[in-house]
Amino acid sequence: MSENLNMFLMAQKQIKDACDKLNCDPAVYEILKQPSRILEVAFPVTMDDGTIKIFTGYRSQHNDALGPAKGGLRFSPTMSLDETKALSMWMTFKGAIVGLPYGGGKGGVACDPQKLSLREKEAVTRGYIRAIAPIIGPLQDIPAPDVATNAQVMGWVMDEYSKVMGFNNFAVVTGKPLILGGSQGRTQATAMGCCLVIREAANKLGIPVKGARIAIQGWGNAGNNLATILQEMGAKIIAVADYKGGLYSAQGLDASTIVKVDGYLKQKTDAGIIDYPGATQISSGDLLTVECDVLIPAAVENQITGENAGKIRAKILAEAANGPTTPKGNEILKTMDIFVIPDILASAGGVTVSYFEWVQNLQNYYWTKEEVNQRLEQKMVAAFENVYNFSKEYSVDMRSAAYMVGIKQLADAMEARGWLS
Questions:
Q1: Which residues 6+ apart lie within 8 Å of 252 measured at CB?
Q2: CB of 202 within 8 A of CB of 209?
Q3: pTM score, whole prediction
Q4: Residue range 336-344: mean pLDDT, rounded
Q5: What is the mean pLDDT of the chain?
Q6: CA angle (358, 179, 164) in 5-degree steps
Q7: Which are the catalytic amino acids?
Q8: How far apart are CA 126 and CA 106, in angstroms?
Q9: What Cα–Cα distance (Å) separates residue 17 from each residue in 159, 161, 411?
Q10: Residue 261 pLDDT exceeds 50
Q11: Is the fold of 7-16+23-176 the same as that of 189-346?
């Protein structure tokens, strides 16, 4: 029987399991099992050929007990309401685990960004922001980059929202260009945060980071920054891949060569990637079963399943992507000698530096990259230690511990606000 890979149902189960382990007031799960607000919009865009096309967009705000909603904006042909709801729920826990004054939000547009011209992409962005403007704002809901969106898109978001409001509002969105109030270190933040918790996990297991064999699935912003940072830390990148294919070399791959705009993973044809001297071409799925010290799924959800989890040969699994492991995959991982750093911890660096950007925007005072990275390290190390200690105290796996840390934060906040009585 195949797995039910509905992300919303997966998120609900994770929350329910954590609530049960903490023996929470039943009202906690009842409040957290679904978003507090969901908006679905349809808006017209004039395409390059002069035709009018209607696009569907979503925004989900899960819980604001700790603060305004915070979460990315993605463009994807598979974007759906259930996906948006699940992602907003995971964002709630990312913020709570790292101790941020945020709730979870997420949004996006159902479209294929590869088929949009730059002008069309800007028009889609602006149309979407006009449609959701009533429910976002620096004290309500702050978007950020996600799949197929970047700093330029966030610049359009800020500009369009400012037009709607009638005044400049830089704090409405994070991940912006530096000239528009962006933060130093934001582009590398998700990868940097993941590398920091990998370092902490390696220390717990007695695995030297220097020389550690790394396999990375996904070659977007997170994947290529992970390769660069880990190589700088002395690790050996032995495998990288995206959805079209990848490379493997037991002797190691040079991250800087692959990262180049004209590098190997950017020169694919329909037949696959071009040859890299001394490397073997592999598929994205094959990468997951490569023997390594650290496996990092940094692509999309539902990659580690009941069918392939038992074939993983890594000592540490660091989930830089959102929801890369299915429930059945997770059950198998719990029986194996693999240290799992769950997504809501491993990928929390992005929202942490987004928080820093928001704070800088609100006070109109900006930090250096060194200050940002120092504050990020403090937050990520503290969060890792808290989750690790919870896992030992309650004798549970790291994923359960992460959700339990988040649930406790949220339950305490909701109790203090009188939501549970």
A1: 236, 237, 238
A2: yes
A3: 0.91
A4: 95
A5: 92
A6: 65
A7: 106
A8: 17
A9: 42, 39, 15
A10: no
A11: yes
CA 280 from centre of chain: 29
- Cβ contact 395:12 at 8 Å: no
Token reading at 384: 């890792």
Among candidate residues 163, 194, 191, 161, the one with its CA nearest the CA of residue 176 = 161
CATH architecture of 7-16+23-176: 3-Layer(aba) Sandwich (3.40)
Give yes or no for a contact between 296 and 287, defined as CB atoms under 8 angstroms apart. Answer: no
Mean pLDDT confidence for 275-295 = 89
Per-domain boundaries in the chain: 7-16+23-176, 189-346
What does the block give as tokens for 157? 């978001």
Q: Is 275 exposed, middle or buried (0-12, 13-18, 19+ CB in 10 A)?
A: exposed
Residue 263 has pLDDT above 60, yes or no: no
In one letter, which amino acid is 89? Answer: M
For the structural domain made of 189-346, what CATH number should be given? 3.40.50.720
CB half-sphere exposure, 265, CA atoms < 13 A: 29
DSSP code of residue 326: -
How many residues belong to the chain? Answer: 421
Q: Please give the share of the chain, as a percent, with pLDDT higher than 70.
A: 95
Q: How confident is the model at residue 121 (pLDDT cuts 50, 70, 90)?
A: very high
Checking if the pLDDT of 388 tops 60, the result is yes
Six-digit token string for 129: 């922001």
Among 128-142, 235-249, 403-417, where is mean pLDDT lowest? 235-249
Is residue 319 within 8 Å of residue 195, measured between CB atoms?
A: no
Contact 225, 190 (CB under 8 A): yes
Cα–Cα distance measured from residue 346 to residue 416, given in angstroms and rounded to the nearest whole number: 29
